[in-house]
Write a structure and sequence with these properties.
Layout: H1 7-32, H2 43-96, H3 104-124, E1 126-127, E2 130-131, E3 134-135, E4 146-153, E5 159-165, E6 185-186, H4 202-207, E7 212-214, E8 225-227, H5 236-289, H6 293-329
Parallel strand pairs: 3-6, 7-8
Antiparallel strand pairs: 1-2, 4-5
Length: about 325
């Protein structure tokens, strides 16, 4: 006598295997939150999402760089704004020195204190070791300062990092002039202060005054330069010349401050755009690889019910074997 496995038992086993396989896939999606977790799930979506993830990390690095640049620009702008206020006070002191009977030596004491404050402002205007208002040895004023601002991937696979440049920071064309003084102080030992508004003698030479007046003496070659200041021996004509030079300096300082403010605004706009791109990447990646948690949770519950019913069906199919076994027990 032979006992064979019944067709109903085989059918129940096949159903349970299918349910178990579906449950494994569904449980994996529910636990990981991903429907495309590896290349075998969907090779095309996996490849695209992997590339987008690397680009998203690059965009994150760009946003960090823009945040650092915004803080640096904010520091530079505040320094220029403060310096303009101090130089305006010096201009007012010089105008007051033209009044008859005024003690010019006392006025000069105030001017000296204000110039010391200018030095302090320009030297302390540093963020993370980067000072955009003072040029020192190692800096090249002829090269524009650039900030990483964007990451672009082209259709042919090429990638490119875009930058924002300090708009006033342009290489001079021809001979250097007062318009090339796009920093506050130029303390390079190999220069003569020409790239710093407060250390450049070009304002005096272009105004046609009698001496090469500067607000602050440069740490480089200052031969022939005269720091702005008054004494009892200073004539009103000389004071008037100083006022003219200081007024021209203020005009260029305003230009520098405007450039810093414009760049800070561009950085803010670019940072907002980079954040929007990052959010777009996140949404695109999510659509391709994320699982529909509501759908998969409902599916898991249904599969668990199907599994219970399948086990009951298998038990019913196996019950016939118990009947045969009981018959032989009575023999």
């Amino acid at each position: 006598m032979s006992i064979y496995r019944r067709t109903s038992v085989d059918a129940a086993l096949y159903v349970l295997r299918d349910i178990g396989r579906d449950m494994y896939q569904t449980q994996r999606q529910v636990s990981s939150g991903l429907r495309v977790q590896k290349a075998s799930d969907n090779g095309a979506y996996w490849a695209i999402s992997s590339t987008l993830k690397t680009d998203q990390k690059a965009q994150s690095a760009i946003r960090d760089a823009l945040g650092l640049a915004a803080a640096t620009m904010g520091t530079a702008y505040e320094a220029v704004d403060s310096a303009i206020d101090i130089v305006s006070q010096i201009k007012a002191k010089l105008v007051a020195a033209t009044e008859s009977g005024v003690d010019k030596d006392k006025i000069n004491t105030d001017i000296t204190q204000l110039k010391d404050q200018l030095r302090s402002v320009t030297q302390s205007a540093s963020f993370n070791g980067d000072n955009w208002v003072t040029v020192t040895d190692g800096d090249d004023p002829a090269n524009p300062r650039e900030i990483p601002a964007s990451f672009t991937r082209y259709s042919d696979g090429r990638v490119e990092i875009g930058t924002l440049s300090y708009e006033v920071d342009l290489a001079p064309i021809g001979s250097t002039s007062s318009k090339d003084a796009r920093y506050l102080v130029d303390d390079r030992s190999g220069g003569n202060g020409e790239y710093g508004v407060l250390t450049s003698s070009y304002f005096a030479s272009e105004a046609g005054v009698s001496q090469d007046y500067v607000m602050l003496a440069t740490a480089g070659n200052s031969a022939g330069q005269v720091e702005i200041g008054v004494s009892s021996a200073t004539t009103n004509d000389e004071v008037n010349e100083m006022v003219v030079v200081v007024d021209k300096m203020l005009g260029q300082m305003t230009t520098v401050g405007s450039a810093f403010g414009a760049l800070e605004k561009r950085i803010t706009l670019q940072s907002d755009f980079a954040q929007a791109l990052d959010d777009s990447y996140a949404r695109g990646i999510s659509r391709m690889i994320d699982a529909d948690m509501e759908e998969q949770s409902s599916r898991l519950k249904a599969l668990q019910t199907q599994e219970q019913l399948g086990i009951q069906s298998l038990n019913i199919a196996n019950a016939s074997y118990d009947t045969v076994r009981q018959l032989f027990q009575n023999v």
